[in-house]
Amino acid sequence: MGIEPDWVRDALSSSRFAPYLAKVDGDMTAAIELYWWNVDISAAFYMPLHCLEVALRNAIHQRLVAAFGQDDWWRVAPLQKKGPYLVADARRKLADRGRPATADNVVAELSLGFWVSLVSRNYDRDLWVPHLYKAFPHYGGSRGDLHDGLNTVLLFRNRIMHHEPIHHRHLEADHRTICRLLGYLSAGMIGQLASYDRVEQVLKLRPGGRGGGR
C-alpha cells in the first residue's frame, strides 16, 4: 500500500519503520503520518518529564544533604550495588568536559535511574524510612508503590530519549502517572506545568482520531 520513500529506507531504516506500518496495516501514507505524530507526542512529553526529573533529584538531594550534613552526601551515604559506580561515572564525565565536580554539577549529571534507585527496596531501611519519605510531602502511600510508578516513568522516559515508538502505549495513563508523581513532590511545580503542558493537546491530534488509548 505505497512505495517506501528513500528517506525512510536511508535515514530511518526499514526495520525501525516497520512498527508504524504494522500499526496501520501497511498503509504507507498513514504510517508516515503516525511516525511524525510519534515524534510530536514524544517532544510534548519532554516537558512533564523534565519537571519530574528535576524535582525528584533536587528533593532527594536536599533531604540527603540534611541527613548527612554535607553537600557531597554520596561520599558517606550507604550507597549499594551500582550507586558508587554511577557517582564515579558522573564525576568522570564532568572531568572529561573540563567541569569541576561540584555537588551541583554531580547532582545534575547523575541519571534518572540513579535517583529512582534510591527509592527502591535496597534503601528501605537506610534511606527511605529515616529520610527520603520526607522528599515526597504530598504522598502517603507505600515506598513500593511509589518506586513502581517512578520505575514505569523511567522506562517510558528512556523510550522517548532513545527515539523509540510510543504510539502504541496508553499515553493518557502515562501522562497522568507523571503528573501524579510530580504532585507528590511539588504542588507549585505541577501548577506551573499546567500552563505549558502540550501533551493533552497533541494527543487529540493523533492520526485517526484515536486519542491517547491503545
What can you tell me about this protein's structure?
By secondary structure, the chain is an all-alpha fold. The protein has helices at residues 6-12, 14-23, 28-68, 83-96, 103-109, 112-117, 124-128, 143-161, 171-185, 187-194, 199-203. This is Abi-like protein. It comes from Amycolatopsis camponoti.
How much is the average pLDDT? Answer: 95
* Tally of helical segments: 11
| Spatial extent as radius of gyration | 20 Å
- Given helix and strand content, the structural type is mainly alpha
Helix content: 55-70%
Using the alpha-carbon principal axes, give the shape. elongated
Task: Describe the sheet with the most strands.
Answer: none
Question: In terms of per-residue confidence, which ranges show pLDDT below 50 for 5 or more consecutive residues?
Answer: none
Distance between termini? 23 Å
Strand content: under 5%
What sequence of helices (H) and strands (E) makes up the elements? HHHHHHHHHHH
Q: How many distinct domains?
A: 1
Please tally the β strands and state the result: 0
Protein name: Abi-like protein
Summarize the helices and strands and which ones pair or pack:
Elements: H1 6-12, H2 14-23, H3 28-68, H4 83-96, H5 103-109, H6 112-117, H7 124-128, H8 143-161, H9 171-185, H10 187-194, H11 199-203
Helix pairs in contact: 1-2, 2-3, 3-8, 3-9, 8-9, 9-10
Quick summary of this structure?
This protein has 214 residues and is mainly α. It has helices at 6-12, 14-23, 28-68, 83-96, 103-109, 112-117, 124-128, 143-161, 171-185, 187-194, 199-203.
